[in-house]
Amino acid sequence: MGRGVTEPTGSESVGPIPELLPEDALPVGFAYPPELLRILRLGLVDLEPWLVLRGEPLLALHHGLRTRYPARHLVPFARRTDRDDVACWDLEPGAAPICVVGDYEVPGYEQGETHATFYGWFRSAVDDLVEWDDESLSAS
Questions:
Q1: What is the distance between the alpha carbons of residues 132 and 49, in angstroms, rounded to a whole number?
Q2: Among 20, 56, 123, 135, which residue carries the largest CB count within 10 Å?
Q3: How far apart are CA 96 and CA 78, in angstroms?
């Protein structure tokens, strides 16, 4: 069983759960949403320029964000590969559920775009993928 995740039942189970943050690293009461688990099981993780993280890169990023932004309650899940943007769940009361932070920014200036849902972020990441491909093709 993947770390920090309970196995859903029925048609949601497409394959093994990739390694996520261990339960002891997750904030109390936080559980990974089924939308993330579904895209992981479907292998939709390389949305160039976005990369949904697993394993050691996810653990290292989570530790780094906690060190750089100790006042924030962030659970990262993706990194943009062409800059230091990180997509996270923002667990602050009253905050949008999903935020993109500029990692390594001065604390207080890291906040970027927000999304009301995980799939809102995912749609934006797919749009970035299409834009990335358009730019790559026009440069060829």
A1: 7
A2: 20
A3: 17
Q: How far apart are CA 98 and CA 110, in angstroms?
A: 14
Q: Which two tokens stand for residue 38?
A: 């579904």
Q: Exposure string (b/e) for 77-108, b if CB count within 10 Å is 16 or more? A: bbbbeeeebbbbbbbeeeebbbbbbebeeeee
* b/e code 130-140 from CB counts within 10 Å (16+ = b): eebeeeeeeee
DSSP letter at 69?
Answer: -
Conformation bin of residue 136: beta by default, left when phi > 0, alpha when psi is -120 to 50: alpha
Using the Cα atoms of residue 56, residue 57, residue 61 and residue 64 in order, give the sign of their dihedral: positive
Question: Domain coordinates of the chain in residue numbers?
Answer: 46-139
Amino acid letter for position 81: T
pLDDT (tens digit, 9 = 90+) per residue, 54-95? 999 999 999 999 999 999 999 999 999 999 999 999 999 999
